[in-house]
Structure formats: C-alpha cells, structure tokens
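Purpose: get a first structural picture of the assembly so the mutagenesis plan has something to point at.
Setup: two entries, given in the order below. No constraints added.
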Amino acid sequence: MNRATRIAVIVAMAIAVLAPIGLVVYQSFLDGPFFQPKISFTLSAYEFVLDDEDFFDALYNSAVIAFGMTAIAVPVGALLAFLMTRTDLPGRRWIEPVILVPMFVSSVVLAFGFVVSLGPAGFVTLWFKSTFGFVPWYLYSKTTLIVIAGLTHVPHVFLYTSSALRSLGSDVEEAARMTGAGPLRTALTVSLPMVMPNILYAAVLVFFLGFELFGLPLVLGDPEGILVLATYLYKLTNKLGTPSYQLMAVVVVAIICIALPLVALQRFLLRAANRYVSVKGKAAAQKPVSIGVWRWPAAAMITAWLLFTVVVPLSGLVLRAFVSSWGEGVNLLDVLTLDHFRELMEFPNLTRGIVNTLLIASVGGALSVGVYTMLNLAAHRWQSGWTRLMDYLVLLPRAMPGLVAGLAIFWVFLFTPFLSPLRQTMIAIWVAYTLVWLAYGMRLVSGALLQIGPELEEAGRIVGASPGRVSRDLTIPLVKVGLFSSWLLIFVTFMREYSTGVYLLAPGTEVIGSLLVSLWGTGAVDLVTALSTVNIAMIGGGLLLMSLFGKRSHG
Amino acid sequence: MAKLIIDDLHLSYGNNEILKGITATFAQGEIVALLGRSGSGKTTLLRSIAGLEEPKRGVISIGDQPVFDAAAGLNVPSEKRGLGLVFQSYALWPHKTVFENVAYGLRLRNVPKADLQQRVATVLDGVGLGHLGDRYPHQMSGGQQQRVALARALVYNPPVILLDEPLSNLDAKLREEARIWIRNLIKRMNLTAVFVTHDQVEAMAIADRIVLLDGGRIVQAGTPEQLYTEPVSLFASEFMGVNNQILSRVQDKRGGYARIDLSGIPLWGKDRAGKSVSDEATGVIRLEQVEVVDGEGENCVPAELETSVYLGSHWEHVFRCGDQMLRAFGRPLAAGTHWLHLPPEQLWVF
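Result (structure tokens, whole complex):
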C-alpha cells in the first residue's frame, strides 16, 4: 500500500470509530432525541441520571460483581493453567479443549442453561430436592450471580496464563529444581511470578468484562431486581415509556468513562507482559512436573468446575428443548418431543434469524476479516503518527460493550441521511459487529501478519516488486492460513454475539442472539431453549471445523 | 570505473546517530567487505544502499545514476534500484518452490517464459542446485538455502550484489568452504559485491578491499594486507588480528620510532600515532611476530614461561614479564625464563 492509501484507510476507520461515540456524546447534552425538530443543549439528562437511585444501585452492583468474579476467576484460572500446562495431570488432552467452551457459548445462553438446570424449578434442583429433600442454593441471588460470573470467566484467565506458561522455557524451572526447590516451591516462587504480568492482565480483563456483563445479570438478576449498568441501560428504554435517548446516552457515556481507563490499563499491562515474556529462556522442550497423588484432587476439582459451568447448564438447556413438560414425578423419557423445534419453524422471524446468523457469521465474518486485514496492512511496517493514532482508535470501540455499540450504530444509521435506508438491513448489523470486535479482530490478523519476518517482504522489494505486489504476491499468500483461522474465530464469535443486535432488532435484521434476548422478555421458554440449542449446535459446528483445520495445519 | 559511490551519508533513528558521514567508492568487479562490530553501522549502511533505510543526508549513486540524494529529495525505492541482496536469514519465501523463488525477479521484469526457464536453470546450475528446483525452502539444508538466496539475487544480473552476513548461519566447516566458493562465483561472473561481516578472517578471505567501520564512521579502508599489516589505529590493529599489548609511556622518539618500556626494559617500536614524549602509549605486536630467541639482544625482554597451550599446528606460550603478560607462538619450550625478541618494525606504538 502506498502512503495515500494507508492514510485514506486510517481516516475511514477514524470516522467509523468516532462517529458513533461523537453522536452519543452529542445526544447526552440534548433535551430530547436528536431527530426531533426542536432540541436544545442542556445538562438535564445528566441531572436526571445522577439523581436516579437505580443508577447508583446498578453502578454499585456492577462494581461488586466485577470485584467478586475477578477474585474467583483469577486464582481458579491461574491454577488451572498451571495444572494443564506444567504437570502430568491425567486426561489433560481431552480436558483442554473443553475448558474454553464457556468463552464460545454466548453468556445469555449459558444463563438460560443455569435457569433451566439450577433455577427454582430446574432439572437439577428438582432432582436434588427429591433425593435429599431440600435445596441449599438459590439461583437468583447476587452471590450466585457472582459465583456463576466468576466461574464462567475462568477460561479468559486460563487462556492468557497458559500461553505465557507455555512460552516459559522449562530451563528456568529446572534451574530452580537444581538449586534445591521442590515442585510446589518452584511453581510458587519461579513459574507463577514469572507469568505474573500476564495474570495481572487477565485480572484487569476479567474485571473489565465484569463491568460489561449483560446476559448473565439480565437473566439471573432480573427476578430479584438486581440491576447492573448494562441492564439498567436496557431497562431505561421502557422506564419512561417514550424513547429517552438523552438518558440512554448519559448512561453510555458513563459506561465508556469507566471502561476507557480499564482498556488503557489492559493495553499497558499487555505490553509490559509481552516484554517480560520475550526475555525468558528457551521454550524448546518442556518436561511436565510430577505432582504425585495431588493429581487426583486436582483432576476432581477441574471436573467439578467443568460439570458446573459447562455440562450442567448446556445439557439442561438441550434437554429442556426436547421435552414438553417436566416436574416432580415426570419421567423425562415419556415427554420427549420435537414440538419446540417445529414451533420454531412456524415463526418466519425466527427462521430468518437463523439464516441471518449463519450469513453474518460466514459472509459477514469473512468481510470483517477483510476489513481487519486492510486496516492492518495500512499500518503494516510503518512507523508514523498515523499508525499511533490508529493504535488508540482501536481501543475506543473496545470500551463500548456490544449493547452500547449496537445502540450507537443504530443512532448513526438513524442520524445520517444516506445511511438511514440501510438501518433495517443486515448491513447495519454487520457494521456494528465489525466495530464491536474491531480490537479483537485486529489482534487476530496482526498476529498472523507478525509471523512473517520483515525480510521476506524486503526481499520482494529488492528483487523488484512494488509495495502493492509485495502485499499481493508475498504477504497475503503467506498469511493465508492465519487469515483463515482468524475467520473461523470471528465466525464463532459472530455466531454467539447477542447484545450488539439488541437495539438493531427489526424485521429483516433478526439474529439468534438478539431474538433470544427479546424472546426471554416475553417468557417463551420453549422457543428460547430450542433456539439456544440451534445456536449451540451451530457454534459446535464452527468449533469442530476449527479443530479439524487446526489438526490439518499442524500435521 | 566506479560502480557504486557513497558520499557523506548520515542516518539516525530519532536521536540515535547510526551513520556519521560515510564516504566510499566501489569499483566495477570489486568485492568489498564492510567490517565492524555489532552496532558499528555496517548493516545499516548496506540497507541504505539497498533502499531499505532512509538516510537523512548524503548521496548514493549506482553507475552514474544517483539513487538517493537527500538534498535533491531523491529516494529511488528498493524495487527500482535493481540491486541484488542476500539476507542474513536468506528470507526465502516459504510458499514458493526454489524455482519460483528465483524466478520471481524475472517474472516481475516480464521475461518471456522460455527465456525465464533457461535463465533460472542456468543460475541454479551455477550455484550447484540445478536438480532441486521443485523443492520448497524448508526441505533444504542451510547451505543449500544460502545458495538459493544467492541465485535469487543473481538471476536478473544486478549491477551490484549486496550480502548481509551471508555465512553467519552456516556451521564452521561449511563456512570455510563457502568463503572460497562465493569468492570464485562472484569473480567468475565479474560482479561488484558488497558484503557485511563481523569476522575479520572472513573479510580477508573473500574481499578485495575491506572497509572497517566503528561507531558509524570509517576507521580504515584498504586491501586486507594493508589493514592487517598497517592498521591506522589501536582499534584497527585490535580488530584485525590477535595482539600483545604493552601499556607504557613514550620515553624517547627518533626517526619515526618511539621508545616505550616493558618492566624497565626499553623497547623501540614504530611511532604510529605521533605521540609526544611522556604521553601514555600502547605498544602493540601480533602474536606471530614475537620470537623466542637464545639470548640477550636489541629489543629483547626476559620473561617467565607461565603456561603453554597445544593448538595442533603450533604451541601458544604465555609469558610473564613484570606485571605484563606476553603471548607468542612457537615450538614446545621448557619451563623457566626465556628471551623474547619484539622486532621494532613489527611493534607499533599507538
């Protein structure tokens, strides 16, 4: 790419990122929706929100939940990472892929699963009651919400800690063993401290995700009226009867103001972490540490965690989708049925939702990867103020939870005259998805691009290829595999996305995720579980494809 | 005829000055080594010639054509300079076969198909890989990959070929063979070549001329013999060979020679730095120039034999003379005191 193209691409990205945020900020200072003819600037929206007890309740709840789930997810995730990467734990091979499942299933679906299994009338609850005569848990309390949120975010901590542990050469551990430290001492004094920056990064990430939480509190907090920031925003729409855009804008501004410093902190920590990792010993051969009899309790702990966060909710959900009724004394085998799926097919908006989800994940995902690649190529091997600007711009959408970004994009399409005909098409959904996952996608693609040494491209220039030809003949073919696996990840990500489409939901723009949120509100549990099952199956297909592809490209 | 001219080249990264005014001329058919430690600017200089770095001042011309002129705002991009560059890592494209790696430069120049086949085959034969065109780079050994990299750089007859530490990734035995092989190939094709190395033996073995760099400046340029036998500075003498150093003061000067002392014994050596009497000075003599002699004489010092090391073709002896150590090569010696002769014309005073 030449300089002019690069700058043009970066400017286009700047507009796409800044327009929604600018519009939100603008809206927050108005006394009515921006499209009304007579509007004036005022601080009244801020006054209203800051006067609202519910807002502070939600803020407090968000903070408590974020702290609580971090305190649960970080130790469990770090321990899990150590057990999986460094020890001779039995069954590591088959446990490992399952650990990441909670990351790939949308959290609203997981939440439904918990309701269906562990709710007051859930499968597990009823079974427990009939066996022991009492039920020691209550699903809809804040504590349960924190525990569930914490345990479902263990994979995030696991992912970052295990990758750091893997890149840590076993020579540093062997050195500690040679000096006389036992396995446990080695883990506590050498291995874990060396990956501390990564754990810290994962902790900030989980804390940040805690503030963004939407699906879990929407489903699990609602019965007891536990509001968090995102659900407060969601409820605000209905609160005053009329669309109170200015109030929503204020809440969005508040969410962004909390998220932005956290995003900046994450970025800083990630850089520090990477610097720390790169100076470590050789990562060549790694010998697992033998933990002796401790491997059985360790394996039991992992199994219990998997059972609670993956097996119980997902199996309950799938089971619920296939039965007509359940309860005490009902033999589940007698009530098996496909009726819920038949019913699903009778609603054109639901079938359209399934097709749309497939389209947005496959075609839309590919287009998004194309966009992320363009953006990456624009900054590729170029040190300048423009690329630094781009670095910071990428962070902005990161500070917008899907719900917020969807709302902002909805407004942009409403506000911009030439875009408004597209508002009720999948294009609006695609723009919102691409924006929400910008930072993630950019990192996926840049990871692939960074794998090729600069000299491979320089060699192309030297033998006479223009920058454009170098991109076409060398860079793109070299990252082809990386781009394909990025697409697979984006495919699964778009498939499970549920919050971004909520405000964009209209006839023609249905996707499974946003349909689930709105169906849950109407109480159509049969349809919700059936649709969730379809979603899980689709994600499972994507993951299967991914593992097949992974096997092929490795062997 | 000058093929490549570099005039007053300056380059910096931020406040870090890498090249501080390099001026050099490279003649047609000449092999020149850019020699220096890491951080001396040798690779940066090579990359500047290739167009991969942008200097902030100076001129680079290939043939009669300037390709870079900071004052005129001229900076011909790499692909338009038509040079050949062999990368330290070889930088072979892993998704192309050996044939395609080599052919790419010709395809970019729209060479007709038949001609292209012919030329790639010729150059691959030239580097002894004619039969391996269908292989992928990862299926080849390091030595073979290096030959492919060379073939890729040669195939479109560049006016100048640049090599960045071409031998550093080969093991020791292979490296010694490759030195002779590369020199013969370049000479046979009558190419102008510039290569970067940190190994003075490699530089002397391959190059017609050596440009010694330090801290972004040229310390000395000349034939390998000139650099080895007439280094202009203490740095150059240290870089090019293995020396004894005698730290002293200048005691006296006479007819181009200066007198220093070693533990009270006067020694005359060539005055190479124009030091004045009573200045601090360093006497430098190559190990192979120190002779073990039978008895006392002019420029001779008595020294205690500390230890001897057997190196196969010869012995290396370490002597102590007062508080200084002297090393010398020679036949096996008995323990005790020996007389060492340091010829005045071989002892350089800096």
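The interface with chain A takes residues 50-52, 77-80, 82-85, 87-89, 91-95, 104-105, 108-109, 152-153, 156 of chain B (CB under 8 Å).
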